[in-house]
Structures are given as structure tokens and as C-alpha cells.
Target: Mitochondrial enolase superfamily member 1
Amino acid sequence: MLESKITQLTVRDVRFPTSLEQHGSDAMHTDPDYSVAYVVLETDSDAALKGYGLTFTVGRGTEIVVCAVKALSTLVVGKTLKEIISDFRGFYRLLSSDGQMRWVGPEKGVIQLATAAILNAVWDLWARVEGKVRNKPLKTNTSDPAKLISCIDFRYITDALTEQEALDILVKAKKGQKSREEQMLKEGYPAYTTSCAWLGYTDQQLTQLCSEALAQGWTKFKVKVGADLQDDIRRCSLIRKLIGPNNTLMIDANQRWDVNEAITWVTKLAEFHPLWIEEPTCPDDVLGHASISKALAPLGIGVATGEQCHNRVMFKQFLQASALQFVQIDSCRVGSVNENLAIILMAAKFNVPVCPHAGGVGLCELVQHLILFDYVSVSASLNNRMCEYVDHLHEHFKSPTIIRNAHYIPPKDSGYSCEMLEESVQKHQYPQGEVWRAIEQQGKQ
Amino acid sequence: MLESKITQLTVRDVRFPTSLEQHGSDAMHTDPDYSVAYVVLETDSDAALKGYGLTFTVGRGTEIVVCAVKALSTLVVGKTLKEIISDFRGFYRLLSSDGQMRWVGPEKGVIQLATAAILNAVWDLWARVEGKVRNKPLKTNTSDPAKLISCIDFRYITDALTEQEALDILVKAKKGQKSREEQMLKEGYPAYTTSCAWLGYTDQQLTQLCSEALAQGWTKFKVKVGADLQDDIRRCSLIRKLIGPNNTLMIDANQRWDVNEAITWVTKLAEFHPLWIEEPTCPDDVLGHASISKALAPLGIGVATGEQCHNRVMFKQFLQASALQFVQIDSCRVGSVNENLAIILMAAKFNVPVCPHAGGVGLCELVQHLILFDYVSVSASLNNRMCEYVDHLHEHFKSPTIIRNAHYIPPKDSGYSCEMLEESVQKHQYPQGEVWRAIEQQGKQ
Model:
């Protein structure tokens, strides 16, 4: 099966009209339509083997990512899976460092999101092939540390993590791996919810959703802040009262503030004891986050960021500068599993917990594999660690996430869990799917 | 004329087959086809007023930028020039922070290059309108400091430069402005040449081009390095011999190295006394550049970077961390004049010279305006300052740069100097232009 050749790559623009109900709204993204550039790799295998991948977007602009996926596809089609994974580091660099296309990046923005969609599909394909034999999901594509290391491009990060150091971390974590795997299968990985407190929700919605979540066993809650200080105080106060002093509260400003403004604003929310302030300022501002971290440390508030941190070099600097206390990896923003392996291993070296970003469309499905890998094969710790969860749009996936008692239950199906239902894809294709045609019709009336 | 409404935006993919002769080749871009996404804004003015803008690319991937320009065009078409420039800061943010499209950036990569192309056209349009009345090129669109400041989005940089500080710099530089302007008109702005030593050139080509350049009055030369150390030593030695000890040599690695590798490699080239090492490592690595700067300072070698530095927040950090000693602004990588104003003013505050990146297609035409502005209206200094020049592809422009005795002579025509000859555009449109059809034919033979 590894000999299967990739014969075709298709990519589609799939959008969900979430803005109609203010799901996903925050201080900077006031009307997101959760979307994906959805990639399918077809192969010449007899078993009709396919690979599914996606990258998450929030509406307009998805067509640009689709265009970029098409541009990169010529580097993928015609290769066998074996060719790719026998030099996955080389293949990663082929995509990320094409002598012409790297100019429009490099390794950032649209072209990096497109790289993620394609490589997510390649990892899915690989996992399915391994699964055909051993029925294992992505997190165990390979348990060979040397093989994993060979997927990582260490260019530009050797001053923070050498190949040998990375290997040592993986080898050391072999100890106790079996029991951690069993623990995960039994208990699952701790999650927190962002579904209760989007910025566009009313206090009434917020109260109701929070109460329901508590009843379902949730203990960790994230609140969107940053548009209006008095609103934030009211909302944080309300939620802290609802969840009590012992549950965990996090706040998220989605890049709304300048550096000094962030410090002032968050200081005024300190009385509600948030564990972290997420994305207080520009995602590119390593030194700004370092200043904020330093100012907020005495208040017991950490800084979390990463969902728009575009590559391993940025994460490297955030870690070097002590600019974050929680590393929020994302399954689509950087170069897929390859680059996230590098980031997870750097976080381990710097002893900073990884708490993934998820939500959107398919991000929970994807990132659960990465955080399970982190616990089982790298960090071996749950201390201060949890994975974001948002309960939207899972019904469009063939193997949706399973949450039990506020924990992610490890996926059982082979693959990277991001195959969508074909019917959902067709209905939501933009602009020709029936959902969008109906919205257009309504607009005309 | 300010009341003119923008009625249409067209964008075309224009590529020049420069890779055929290794023009522009460096350690990371081995086969660039210099290209542009070329924007024309049409208006409803009686005078058939148009605005011309572009962003530079190196071949494949230009179609993605074209797609992004189209996505952004809905935010531009229908607006009058007056609406835009009466709140240019707001218009800049409209483009850079659209609630949906910012996800595929923000302010980086493809979407930022597209923003630059559009805003370059808007600045051109504005300059032409001013020129109709006063016949002045872009550098003097407005000489009112407050008006200039109102074009800048200070979001995320107030910890390094406040609006008041920026204003103070401009007001202070009013002194002597008139005589500096006269000086520029007479002598021009000092330039250096990169045309002699692309990585793909033979030693013979290099010797010939260098000798010719010396004869033409050039005194400052840049050499591409980074692929092979022994080659670099031979080439630097050759050029240093050719130009003698008193002329200036700069070296450029185009991001080839890791941090420690950069320090070791450049140390071995120190005997040739380069003024700077340009792009020693990943353009995102502020802290890496700071380490390199610190290590090379005792050797008298500075660090230069910026052509792939994607926004003002990155430049802010490079300055805060003393990670560069030469600020290489680019007219297309960041958000046009608006963002370059912010960068030029930050460089002034941190007292670091601006030495623009140019070359490619149209970059010299554009950036000459910015560096003239820097000298006349901001820094008032030529110390350690010079602007890159490459002598390719100027023949495709309606008002090409004028170089006299290795100096840029200020443009006389109104506008931002990037209107291309329509015939050139049509011939080089990709893939349907006759130049590309001929290459395709040859490939088939």
C-alpha cells in the first residue's frame, strides 16, 4: 500500500454560515463563517485508498487558500506515499521552500495554510495505510523516534533544539508510554470549552450555556474579551459566579490590544482569577508578549498564544523569550504534523505546557491526535494541560470527536479524522452549494 | 479630481523569464522568473485618470497574489479617492483587518503582498491627482506632517513609537528640507549595485560586470553568498581585488543559514571587510538576528534585513532587539507607503539607517520615492545610507528610474512610477502572453 501513487488532488471551498448566529465571534473576527479548504488525495491503489486533509479559515479568503493548494499540488501528484515518507523532511521542504513560491511566504499566511491542508491529507493517507494493517489512528503512524525525527525540518531551530536533543526527548518518554496510552483510552484527554461565551452572545445565552456545560461535567471555561472593558468585567464576573472559585477560567482577546493596553486591561480583570490571557496582542509580537508575560506574572496570570503563530521559528522565539506560558499549537496554521512535532518537542525542552487551539471546523478532530501524542510520547504530563473544545459542526465529519465527561476520547478509526461527509461538502460548497444558494435567494427577497 | 470614484480594479499576472539567464539567482531562489501582480484602478474622472500599482513576485505563486487582489478589490471599488485619503488609516485597516480575510494573514504573506499592490495603486492615483495641479511626484503627495501621520495605523507599535513622537520627528525634520530637496534634484540619492554578482554568474561574468560598473562610477557592490563557503571565499576575494580596499562590499545570504552557522560562515568572510551580511537566517527570527548582530559587531560587520520582513510589528521588534543595523524596507512586502512610513519613522527613532531593498520588477521605481522621503523629510542624513539598484527590466516602465553616476535621480513625472508599458504587460502576461507561448513552443520541440 505504501507503493500507492497519488494520482489526483482535488480541493474545494466549503463554508458554513456561522456568522448568522454569532457563533465564533470575537473582538477581531466579528462575523466568521467557519470554512475549510478541503483536500482529497486520490491514489491508484486497488483498495480505493484516499487521503483527506483540510485547513481552517473563516469565510472570505478561502478561495485564495484553494488557489494556493492548486499551485502546490504539482509538487504532490505523481509521488508515491513511500517516496514521501521515506524522506518526509525533504518533502516538507519541497513544499515550504519551492524556489519560486517561497517568495509569497515563506512559511506563513496563505501558502502555509495551503501546505497544512495538503500535508494533513498526506498524514491521513499514511495513517490509513498503517491502519489497514494495524488499525491505529494517526498518533501511532509510527512509534519509532528516529522515524518521527526524520519528518521534521530542523532548519532555523537548531539554536534552540538539535536533532539529537529531540531524539533524546522521544527516547526518554518511552518509559511509561504503555500505561499512559491505556489511561487515555480509559479516561481521555482533559478538555476545556469555548462554546459558552462568544463575544456576540447575550448574558442570557451565556448563563444558560454555562449552566448546561457545568451539568455536563465541564470544569474549564474560556471567555472572549477585548471589545469593551465594562462588558468584560460584567461577563467575567457573571461566569466566575456561575462556575465558582474552583473551576478554571481563561480569557481570550484575539489580538485586540497594544502591549501596554493589554497589561492595563488584563490587570482590571485579575480579580476574576483567569489562568491565562490568550492572544493579548499582535501574534507576531514576541517581545510584546514577553513584556506582557513579565507584567502579569505577579498577578498569577499566564500568557497563551499560538493559533496564529505561523511557523516553528516564531514558536522558537516565544519560548526563548519566555513570552508565553501556554503553547497553543494549531493543526492547520503551521506545516501540519511535521512542523507541530518540532513545536511540541521545543515546548518539552523549554518545559512549557502545550494546550492546543481547536474549534472552527475540523480543528478538534485533527488536534486531538497531536495532544494525545504529546502526552503519550513527549511530555508525559497533564499538569496545566488541556485541549480546547467547541461543540460546533462535528456532525459533518465521518469520525467526529467523542467527548466524555469533558475529556477527548481517543479516536478509534484509522486516519487523521478529518474526512467530511460528502453530502455536507456538496451542500456547503461556496458559492454553488445549496446552503449558499438559499442564502443568496433570501438576500434577494 | 479627489472626488473621482474608483469604478474598476483590474489585476494581471505578468512574468519575465529571467531564470533562463540566471539573473536574480541566489542561495534560496535558484531560478526566479521576476514577476508582478499588476493592478490598474480606473476612475470615473473626465481626465481618464488611472492609478497603477504592483507587487513583486518571482514566478509561480503570482496567480495566488492575483487571486488575493481580486478578493480585496470589493473593499476598494466604489470608493472615491477623497473618501480614502480623508481616512487613509481607516482604509488601511479595512484592507488589512477585514474580519474574515485577516485569518489568512494577518498582515503577512500573500494577503499582505496583495494589499501592497492595491495601496501602491491608490498612492499612485493620489500622486497623479496632486500632480495634475502641482506636477509633483509621490514623495510630495503631501508635506503636511499631520496628514502623513493620519495615513499610519499605529496599532501594535505604540510601545515603540507613539503618534506624537512620529509627528515630532516629522516636524523637526522640516528644518533644512528645502536645501535637501535641491541637493537631491542635483546630485541624486546614493545607490549600490547588485547586478554584478548573482550566484548563478560565472567568475568571468562577474569580472566583466564588475569592471564595467567601476567604469560607470559605482562604488558599492553586493555579492550573493551562502551556497558554498569555498565559492564564497573565491568570489569575495575576486571582487574585493577588483574594487580595491576603499569601495564598499556587502554580502547577501538570502536566509540560507541557521543562527550559529551564519556566525561561523560570515566570520570566515570577514577578511574581505563586508559592510553588512544581509538576510543571514530566517526573516522571522528577530532573536536569531540579534545573536548574529552581537557576534559580528566586533568584526565590524552589520546585519541587514527586511525584504521579507512582513509588517511594522516585525520591524519594531528588530529595532527593539538591536537585531539589525540596516533597515531594508521593501515597497511591496509590507502594506505600501502607509506601513513604510511607520517603519521609516521607527528607524529614525531608533537611529538606524534605512537602506531599501530594490531590484526585481518595479521595486527600484517604487522605493526611490520612499528613500527620497526618508532623506528629505525624516532622517536628514546620508550617513551609512544607500539604495539598492539592479539594472534589469526598467525598459518596461513608462517612467523608468534614472541613474546618474551611481545615484538615483528623483523622478519628475507625477505618480508612483510603476505604470508599465501596456505592450510589455500584454507580451508577458502569464501564461497567454506571446513570450510565454513561445517558451512553451520551444519546450515542446
